Amino acid sequence: QSALTQPASVSGSPGQSITISCTGTSSDVGAYNYVSWYQQHPGKAPKLIIYDVSNRPSGVSNHFSGSKSGNTASLIISGLQAEDEADYYCSSYTSSTSVIFGGGTKVTVL
Amino acid sequence: EVQLVESGGGLVQLGGSLRLSCAASGFTFSGYWMSWVRQGPGKGLEWVANIKHDGSEKNYVDSVKGRFAVSRDNAKNSVYLQMNSLRVEDTAVYYCARGRYSSVLWGQGTLVTVSS
Lengths: 110, 116
What we know:
The complex is a heterodimer. By secondary structure, chain A is mostly beta strands.
């Protein structure tokens, strides 16, 4: 199964809002509300920032938000900060009882 | 402290075997699905396998089916990944993570290098 499709890179200036898309199929993103988003800084383990499409774990900043429409999920980072510069990955549960990740998006704060 | 600690990584020859371990602490291990996720050098995350609370259900990515086996010992608060017939493309940092659909708790990862 192919990875979910994410843009390779997204950039923005401090204070701006950016959106990262995550496109799957009717067998994964479109079928289940089990889309998650992870932030990963170099050399570190991934950090969960959104689960079940739009929920934030305790302690995660509310300038991260998530949504889904059809086969595409989105992560919105509002009020971009320097520390938001990282790689971001989406993931989804699939109809084959597995989990699939996106290819990752590098966010650059200009 | 709530944490996951992986061990068992290392350098292995093409076609060889390795067993990864992940020790959990600070939470009720037997109440959670556990997953293994890997990340090749300079690459993205790839889900590898998961296992249900009681070990009664196991799922694998197609590329490791028949070669890898996930297991757990709830008495030891540990989950394992037995990796056989290793390929160069299995070279990666292997993370264990708590959860089935999403994981708020991850280990620090253990590096597996398969040499040809």
